[in-house]
Design goal:
The protein contains 10 helices and 9 strands. The strands form 3 sheets. It has a 5-stranded mixed sheet with strand order 4-6-7-9-8. A two-stranded antiparallel ribbon has the order 1-2. The protein has a two-stranded antiparallel sheet with strand order 3-5.
């Protein structure tokens, strides 16, 4: 099993080795072929000479290099036989030379192919060594030591870019794990508080032997309120998890219609809190999940009414901006430090942590998750006079969805 795993782990090195060896073998064969063809077509050079007598009676010898004599040169029969013998011998020598060249070149190519494979194996191992080191380091990283990094040094090449990319991924995973841990801790804290209150109410009722029916009824009413708050918290957590998972369905949603319905349902509460609600609702059709879009609008309106001042104001607007649709919710309220705006988008974050109003600091975090699931741009700004100005800009409507 170990040998099989080791061989499987060297597949890339083996492929690189075969690639190096194959390229060398191919280039060597092409080079030897070109050399062989050039030598084969170079022809044979035969030295030929002629002897003649000048008019003055002097003997002259002319030597020619080539396979044929120049035009006008005449040979005797004996000279011609000698020349032909030389030519035949030269052709035989060239053929023998070409045969030896072919054999020796083949042997040299075979030897160098073996050398190329060995060198390719060594070079491939050296090239893959940083990858093996990074792989071993990554295998040792878990949730307990996700803070560790590869931290590869050296020139800015492909391997360092890969290592930096992995380090960036590990950084994002560390942030996600930290956020998850904080979320679980905050959720446990928020759930423990009402459970503790429920236990105290039940214990007080059970341990009081003189408790009357009215006292029991009052305790049960308090328990119902606490239970309702728990149900709201659990529902908010479920919506937050669903929105972070992404959209299961996409439909055509009329944003203005949802805003009208939410504002109509919030009218009694607005009258009870003496809040002035101004609506400028224009047609705005978006693509998304109707349930999540409705929760987004409801959470923004609920947040605007919950964190307001007496005789305050809530402004809701929908419409189009170019090819995109927007939802805007603005309210009066207590001043919000600009540096705390981003913090309010995190789960279980409130300006007033001691307020016991049934809110758990999940409203805006759910809005942010739903906006991200719809690829919408969420903008939250603190108003100088107090309160928040929140704007959600949805992507362009896609017909037929």
């Amino acid at each position: 099993m170990g040998l099989t795993s080791q061989i499987s782990g060297m597949r890339v090195r083996l492929r690189l080795t075969l690639l190096y060896g194959g390229l060398f073998l191919l280039s060597g064969a092409v080079l030897l072929t070109i050399t062989y063809l050039l030598v084969a077509h170079s022809g044979s050079n035969v030295a030929m000479s002629t002897q003649s007598t000048t008019p003055s009676g002097e003997q002259s010898v002319s030597i020619f290099l080539g396979e044929t004599l120049p035009a006008g040169v005449r040979l005797s029969e004996a000279q011609r036989r000698v020349v032909e013998a030389f030519q035949e011998q030269a052709h035989q020598q060239q053929a023998e030379l070409m045969h030896q060249l072919l054999v020796k070149s083949g042997v040299a190519l075979a030897v160098m192919a073996v050398v190329a494979v060995v060198l390719g194996w060594l070079v491939a191992g050296r090239v893959l060594r940083p990858l093996q080191t990074m792989t071993a380091t990554i295998q040792l990283i878990s949730a307990r030591n996700v803070h560790e990094r590869l931290a590869v040094t050296g020139p800015r090449d492909e391997l360092k870019s890969l290592a930096d990319t992995v380090d960036g991924l590990l950084g994002r995973l560390e942030s996600a794990l930290d956020s998850h841990k904080r979320f679980v801790a905050n959720a446990a804290h928020e759930l423990r508080t009402p459970l503790t209150l429920e236990h105290a109410l039940l214990q007080e009722t059970v341990l009081d032997p003189d408790a009357t029916v009215e006292e029991f009824r009052a305790q049960f009413e308090e328990l119902m309120v606490v239970s309702e708050q728990q149900a709201q918290l659990l529902e908010s957590l479920l919506v937050l998890a669903t929105s972070e998972r992404g959209l299961d369905r996409r439909e055509s949603v009329e944003l203005s219609g949802i805003a009208d319905d939410v504002l109509r349902a919030a009218e009694p509460r607005a009258r009870h809190q003496a809040l002035a609600v101004a609506a400028e609702v224009e047609p705005a059709r978006v693509t998304g999940d109707p349930v999540l879009v409705e929760r987004l609008v409801a959470n923004l309106v609920d947040n605007a009414m919950s964190y307001n001042v007496p005789d305050g104001r809530v402004e809701v607007a929908t419409g189009t901006e170019g090819v995109r649709c927007f939802l805007s919710v603005t309210n009066t309220g207590p001043p919000v430090p600009p540096d705390l705006v981003e913090q309010l988008l995190s789960p279980f974050q409130r300006l007033d942590r001691t307020a016991d109003d049934g809110h758990h600091g999940l409203g805006l975090s759910i809005v942010q998750s739903i906006a991200a699931a719809h690829s919408a741009d969420l903008t939250v700004q603190a108003r100088p006079a107090g309160g928040l100005a929140i704007r959600v800009l949805f992507p362009a409507f896609v017909p037929g969805v």
